[in-house]
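P.,

For your records, the input lines for the assembly:
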Amino acid sequence: MTATAEKGRGRLAGMKERWAHLPKQVRWAGIAALIAFLYILPNRWFYEYLGFPIGSEYFAFYTTRSDFAGVLFDTAVFVLLAVGLNVVVGFAGLLDLGYFGFYALGAYTVALLTSPESRFGTEWPWLAAVPLAVMVTMVSGVILGGPTLRLRGDYLAIVTLGFAEMIRLYAARNEGILQGQRGIPAVPHPPGTGTDGKPLFGVVDAKPYYWLMLTLILIVILLVRNLANSRVGRAWVAVREDEDAAEIMGVPTFKYKLWAFAIGAAVAGLTGAVFAGKQTFINSDQFLLESSILVLAAVILGGAGNIKGAIVGGALTWYLPEWLRGVGDLVGVEFDAAEYRILVFGLVIIVMMIFRPQGLVPNRRRAAEFADRRKEVVPQETVPNE
Amino acid sequence: MNFDEFFGNFPALTITGLEQGAIYALVALGYTLVYGVLRLINFAHSEVFMVGTFTALWTWEALGYNQNSPSPAFGALLIALLAGLVVAALASAVTAVTVELVAYRPLRKRNAPPLAFLITAIGASFVLAESFGIGTSRAPFGMPNLIPQETLFTVFGAAVTNVQLIILGVTLVMMVGLDQFVNRSRLGRGIRAVAQDADTAALMGVNKNRVILLVFVLGGLMAGVAALLWNVRYGYTKFNVGFLIGLKAFAAAVLGGIGNLRGALLGGLLLGVAENYAAGLFGGDWKDFTGFVLLVVLLMFRPTGLLGESLGRARA
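Structure tokens returned:
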């Protein structure tokens, strides 16, 4: 059993090495092909062309229970959230448990500014509201992080948890500006007209939203990757590994922690803004606190500190349960995987933290940190006759 | 701002606040004990409380009480309450210990970084809440009305009910008992020693793992008592009942100085009172926000809490 696992791991590592040794052009072409594949993924003709049978026995990627493009969009939302949270948890080592709070804040900002039903009455176009939503979430991240990031890291966890819960509680009040469960309807779609004269972003077809999200993910990944490889990224790693040492070496730790927190918040705000544009209707039921833990599980599962890991984790946590629902139909079992989602991923978090804290696709440096700490364990001799 | 409401009901708000604060204080003790020894926010503690509420309810159901049964006679009532208390406290303690053994101890063995503990804690919290959520179909459950509320006397025009007196009385007894235990007993000395300096304590022959287990047991027992009081007072439970209580209890623990037992009592009572004042001033909707706002303000100006931190230094 372990032998095969070792072998599999060896093969995987070998593939990785071979990939790294390929000429640069080939690697670029490979990545471009992968991206193109992701863009084609929701199109029906693509599967017909490949000769897959479409229908209930459709097994490969399709989710039979729900609209495939819709599932892909939700998965993309999750991936982007995971990439954003990865900056906070993975790079800077700060535990943000209220990540969904920022997501809700972004969505509500867009809804309030654009909807004719909101009490603001501004009725901005969607595109104008998005940058503002990102700014609002970023500023709220700074306001929230300011007092808490100066303290021990673990207070941040509880304050962010409280923050997300307060946002939800406020949103659930019916008489507040967020209008509780009645919510804010008639949020406009993103602009744009297709070649046939119809608006590009409609109600029925989720594909354009998926493509929009995919594009945003690519842009955010590019930005985050460059940040992580820059002076800022090195400061984050220093803070994560040993904050006191970093401070002594002259890294302004508070500043960089605040940066990480604010950038993470801004990414969540952006995601929320796009979500509002697709959904056109925002109410308090859409921002359950449990989702924060799902995003965290995605980052941990994939491998905190590694953007690839965050993508893999985000895709798995959302896509897998949806896909399993369809599989259950095939086997003839009524099994709602989404019902057990949080339970399962809660267990996944615990098990991963014990047995593979570096995640499925680990960041090399962070994996080494864990291994180092494990070596430092003082052998604990229990006193024999206490 | 509704000043008439606030000043008109000032005594009543204070008494309700004290009574609610007492429950927060009991839960806060669990956070404070674990934090004092392990420097870990045990997120799963809110679920330890939730398990207590459910097991007490099931005990009563097993004894043949349901929502519609009339309030029993004094002897039967006492038996029902004691049975509920014992079962809830034991179940909560067992839950807390299970979390420690399954989730935290393996991490300690591997010398995991603090972030790993926090992440595991939140995972454990959601696993517990969700398994109860799935098991109970996420429905709220009503309690048998064991003690009918009646007004015993009035203070400045505010009615004091028997249930409120019971809650305050039980909390004070538990609090004094725990304080004496930690400060005077041999086991309590072990707790204080590990809290002060774990390595040195181990060299002096204190079994660290046993102390940590003891701390989880004590926290669980307190949460179980709080759960019983909650059942008697509020008469319902749900799989996520622990979440908000846990958040507030943690705020209370930080308010009084986390790691400080007396601080937890002070913080709990203060938070309960502050919440009710806020509800009187701004309307009931804002009640749940008070704890969070207090927490953030406190962290800005006095992060060590009112009575200061450290379980090790908390002595008579």
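Two observations worth noting. Chain A has 15 helices and no strands. Chain A touches chain B through 50 residues (CB under 8 Å).

Regards
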